[in-house]
Amino acid sequence: MRIPAHSVCTAIRDDIVAGVYERGSRLTEELLARRYGVSRVPVREALRTLEAEGFVVTRRHAGACVAEPTEQEAADLLEMRTLLEPLGASRAAQRRTEAHLKVLRGLVRLGQERARRGNSDDLRSLGGWFHETLAQASGSPALSSMLTQLRHKIAWMYAVESPADPVESWTEHGAIVDAVARGDGERARAITTLHTERSLPAHRLRFGSGQDRAERVRNSQHAVNMPSLRH
Fold first, then answer.
1. Interval 95-129: pLDDT, tens
2. Fold of the CATH domain 5-66
3. Residue 118: what pLDDT?
4. H/E run at residue 159
5. What is the DSSP letter of 26?
6. Are 95 and 137 in contact (CB under 8 A)?
7. 227 and 9 in contact (C-beta within 8 Å)?
8. Three-class SS state of 208
């Protein structure tokens, strides 16, 4: 069975984001193919995609390597997100479907419930799903794809602290959905801008030492043809 290149790409990207591969480290096709249990063909295709996304660079005499973003490049990503997420919310107010609203409202209910209980791990996942769904509701595949890449890169470059007041944070999520449901693009944009800007101080650059990287490598030996990577 031929493993799709996008599955290999997801696996490599996830390991880059998790810090399994050091910035600047080489990514050889042979070792990657062995690690993920695939041939070199999907690995080669995956590396091309990851290079286009900015996670990988090709260097003379070294081949594919993990990119080494600068602090300025990392800061630019946060600025881009503060511009694009409000745009996505504004468009979602005009283009969302009832299915999108149902999912968004369900996520807000769960988020508010978990926030009251103080389940920070659940809140991180729910927040990611919320913003992913909001981007999809924009009706713009290009914008949605760009926001997804931004989220991956920000997760790679930054550690994000939990909100000081998670209940207030999820109240803002609910206000965004209310504006989207009413078709009020300007209010959806304004609330999303405020929500995004308030989250900026919680971001801390990951650049620095990585004493536990070797341990993460040992603990993440998964193959692409495992069930978790089939969807």
1. 999 999 999 999 999 999 999 988 777 888 899 99
2. Arc Repressor Mutant, subunit A (1.10.10)
3. 80
4. strand 158-160
5. B
6. yes
7. no
8. coil
- Rounded to 10 degrees, the C-alpha dihedral 45/56/202/208 comes to 140
Report the share of the chain in percent with pLDDT over 70. Answer: 88
Q: Please report the sign of the dihedral spanned by the C-alpha atoms of residue 225, residue 226, residue 229, residue 230.
A: positive
Q: How many CA atoms are closer than 13 Å to the CA of 3, on its beta-carbon side?
A: 25
Q: Which two tokens stand for residue 42?
A: 């999907």
Q: How does DSSP classify residue 201? A: G
CB atoms inside a 10 Å sphere around CB 110: 18
Q: Which residue has the higher pLDDT, 92 or 220?
A: 92
Handedness of CA 201, 207, 210, 213 (dihedral sign): positive
- Side-chain-facing half-sphere of 199: CA atoms under 13 Å: 25
pLDDT for residue 2 is more than 90: no
- Angle at the Cα of 110 (from 128 to 112), degrees rounded to 5? 95
CA atoms of 115 and 198, how far apart (whole Å): 17
φ, ψ dihedrals at 63, nearest 5°: 80, -150
Rounded to whole angstroms, the Cα distance separating 160 from 126 reads: 14
Class for domain 71-205, per CATH?
Answer: mainly alpha
* Residue ranges of the chain assigned to CATH 1.10.10.10: 5-66
pTM for the structure as a whole = 0.81
Distance separating alpha carbons of residues 1 and 225, to the nearest angstrom: 9
Cβ distance 111 to 137 under 8 Å? no
Element (H, E) at 58: strand 56-59
Residues of the chain with CATH 1.20.120.530: 71-205
